[in-house]
Amino acid sequence: MSERREKLPVRLARWFERSMLWLIVLSMLVGAAAGFACPASVPALRRYVDFTLYLMLYPMMVGVQMDQVWRAAREARPISLSLFFNFIFSPLLGWFIALLILRQYPDFAAGLILLASTPCAGMVVGWTGLGRGNVPLSLVIVVVSLLLSVFTIPATVLLLAGTFVRLDALAILKSTLAVILVPLVAGDLTRRAIYALWGQEGFTAVRPLLAPLSMLGMFGIIFISVANGIPQMAANWTGALLALPALAVFYIVQLAAAISVPRRLGFRPADVVALANAVVGKNVSLSLALAVHFFGPVTAAMLAANPLLQAPAMAWIYRWARRGWEETAGESGGGRG
After folding, report:
1. CA–CA dist 196, 277 (Å, integer)
2. Furthest-apart CA pair in the chain: how many Å?
3. pLDDT tens digit string along 217-243?
4. d(Cα 97, Cα 6) in Å, to the nearest integer?
5. 311, exposed or middle or buried, with CB in 10 Å at 0-12, 13-18, 19+?
6. Which residues, 6+ apart, have CB-to-CB distance to 31 below 8 Å?
7. Pick the residue with more confidence: 148 or 89?
8. pLDDT in tens, 149-180
């Protein structure tokens, strides 16, 4: 019985991972139905934004191991390339695509730039492991990128998204600190407390529950965002139709660059997998949280649809990586024969 109880969190986490796309679609559909059916009532849902926001971010931060940052010194070259992609290449690419496709729709343009300016999410560690990539490197990239984003997001969003919408620099800085720093510190303290009280065994037992809790918060944010943003999106339906191709172009270019550049530079296959996931696996939860804080509901609703395009891109990296390993194993086997 105790073994079954220990396995339940793992089974629950796997079910959430397998069903994530469908649950996102369900959250969007229910939110859209609520927005159309009760347009006068859905604004009251905003009072629950902070609760769902921290339900989404806090569990994610509990799993971030801050002490892994010191590993970065030994992986300077791939770390530097990941930072270039996440904080220079991606924001400029998002801005350029927004300028070409979404110039007439500033709320959607700001959403694309905000997404492009956010670092990678903790999920990239899992995807890297599935693709037999360099998991320790992936973990370091996640932590370093998250810490730097406290300073890079306000500057980048103000500089690039400010060409489309008017922004308050101080409000952006405060929101970024509230959305990243507070959950990060609280999560680190919680993780240390768990280790102090129950050790590695206790943290191992708790860890599978962190992702499902975070997803529940994300589904709540998506529901509230879509419910509040769907009337405006319906009124700007041409912008909404253009936003999806803009996101698709963004991910295709990111994917091509994140794989081709490290390979040309002679990186190991395991490092290429880690870098590709770190570049493509943008932190949707963080971008949603920031959009709710200092952009309109249309921007948040657009970002709520982002996983529908991001997840297939991540899955493609996984299939590409596995195919590469299988070909390598086949060549090795053939050589032995």
Report:
1. 32
2. 72
3. 888 888 988 888 887 777 777 888 899
4. 47
5. middle
6. 222, 223, 224, 225, 226, 227, 230, 304
7. 89
8. 888 999 999 899 887 877 777 777 777 777 77
What contacts 166, CB < 8 A, 6 or more positions away? Answer: none
Domain of 150 in residue numbering reads as 2-37+45-325
Contacts from 327-336 at CB under 8 Å and sequence distance 24+?
A: 328/269
336: in domain: no
CA quadruple 187, 191, 197, 203: dihedral sign = positive
The tens digit of pLDDT for each residue in 245-281 reads 999 999 999 999 999 999 999 999 999 999 999 999 9
Give the Cα separation of 208 and 9 in Å (integer). Answer: 6
**CATH code where residue 192 lies:** 1.20.1530.20
Structural domain total, the chain: 1
Are 251 and 308 in contact by the 8 Å Cβ rule? The answer is no
Q: How far apart are CA 68 and CA 165, in angstroms?
A: 37
Tokens standing for 163? 């060409």
**Does residue 337 lie within any of the structural domains?**
no
Query: Is residue 317 one of the residues assigned to a domain?
Result: yes
Q: How far apart are CA 226 and CA 232, in angstroms?
A: 10
As a whole number, the mean pLDDT across the chain is 84
Tell me whether residue 319 is in a domain: yes
